[in-house]
Amino acid sequence: MIYKYNRISEAGHRLIKDWKKNAQNFRKLSDSSICSYSRDIKFFLSFIENYENSKISITILENIKTRDLRAWLSHEIKLGTSSTTLRRYLSSVKDFYNWLNEKKNLNNKSIFNVKIPKKDNKLPRPIEENYILDILSLIAKNNKKPWIAARNISVISLLYGCGLRISEALNLKRKDYPFKGILKITGKGGKERVVPVVPFVEVCAEKYLDLCPFKMEKNDFLFSGIQGNQLSARIIQKEILFCRKQLGLPETVTPHALRHSFATHLLSAGGDLRTIQELLGHSSLSSTQIYTSVDPKRLMKVYKETHPKA
Prior knowledge:
Layout: H1 10-25, H2 31-52, H3 58-62, H4 66-78, H5 83-103, H6 129-142, H7 146-162, H8 166-170, E1 182-186, E2 192-196, H9 199-211, H10 233-247, H11 255-268, H12 273-280, H13 285-288, H14 290-294, H15 296-306
Antiparallel strand pairs: 1-2
């Protein structure tokens, strides 16, 4: 039976704790990056303990061979782990081994001989406009507390109406509202961009703040959880999951799919790629060009209207 190991010995926990301390104090990695790396490293150490039938130790880690790493990757593939996730796992473990080699006096380069699996070339799957309206309607019905319904609708309106990542929406502060037609967003890599805010998004945020039971200071997060702390992305993910099941929609309907929908619907309506690139905060146009594969009708329309021989 193939299953994912998730338990490690105290020695493994200590190593991860030491790595995290170094990442926080000297490398200044973000909390979310440290959390993701730690989880990936834990999966790796857990597998090695079961594979070697022994508690993790510096000696075991130093003696890991390329074949052992390939056995781990093969195990993950059997679990259904995507190549994109495997790439991240390998990146995390390589970072861990860089630290081990430098700080724990290991001399193991095996991990660096393993090739990263080819990245999946999956197209984004936008949500049809009518289904987005259905989701918003369901949220209002599914939540007994009006302020929670208004909050979740406001977050989703930002994902679809402004093309924000869920982390960008949830990191907004009270001082950012009223939006006054624009939002300044700090995205991946600290890159800043300005996005326009349509009236519908303003109205949703206003309704939420009118109903929100918590008093906020200007530097408090705009979207509050049930205890008044910052809203977790998991709450919005669960909300979309519930609506998806009610409507019988595919698994591709996620909060991030709302951002894909923003880009695809803009392109369908005549938006140009450069503008959409700026709105999404993509550093490279190649990241935005994937939406042209999603909307071939738009490409044919542009071709027929602009090519002299069409």
